[in-house]
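Example 3.2
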Amino acid sequence: MTDLWHYLKSQADSGRPILLYGMGNGADKIIAVCEAYGIPVADFFASDGFVRGHSFHGKVVLSFSQACEKYGAEHMIVLLSFASSRPEVLETIRRVASACEMYIPDVPVCGTELFNAEFYESHLHEITAARALFADEESRRVYDGIMEYKLTGRMDILRATESDPADAYRNILHAEEFLTAADLGAYNGDSIRDLRQYAPHLRDVIAFEPDRRNFRKLTEYATALREAGDTLTVHPVQAGAWSHTATLIFHGSGNRNAGLTDTPAEAKGNILP
């Protein structure tokens, strides 16, 4: 069995340039995996109109058109290194994918264990056992698609596993029956706002958010609901959710990238009990 990383290594060894589309935390994680596999990253680019002459990892960030001119769209391989749900951004991503060979690598959100071919083969028993727990063919189809995407990074396979948000809330989660919910990583309450559109009887949400700045925004949202006499009560809890009691190091970035880290220098004073 092969996977995206072994494929990228073979292509890089044959002379094809590997470029990252986007910067930030996601790009850092992809770069770390590329370095572990000996895959050189030729350059970084951003969408046309978002390039301001800045640098990332010692390289000047190109626009997509500059990257195509420098390497040739038909020759380069692009790795998407950020996520977005904004329609205009998704359309730009689709345009890039239609012009060149592009993948969306699956890298760990926390920790360092990578879902690659070796991981898949060594955990095949658990993966197969988990698949058997699904009661319907659609769930098994989606599960299979996610496993294949995590190995290949192919966007078409990932998109085939998508559900319309309204369909997911109504027909999979049955949110109209919710009275109480927990949001384990609530950010500023954005997921709660989405949920309540489909959960008219929702009355209480216990909202965990460890990051100080994000927690302040979450608290402001909860306060605004209370002062407006809203039927929904959000209970902010400044803590992290974990599988057991432990002391962990937290990177308090104040945005969606806030999360656990193995690097004490990134913790910025956030030690989570």
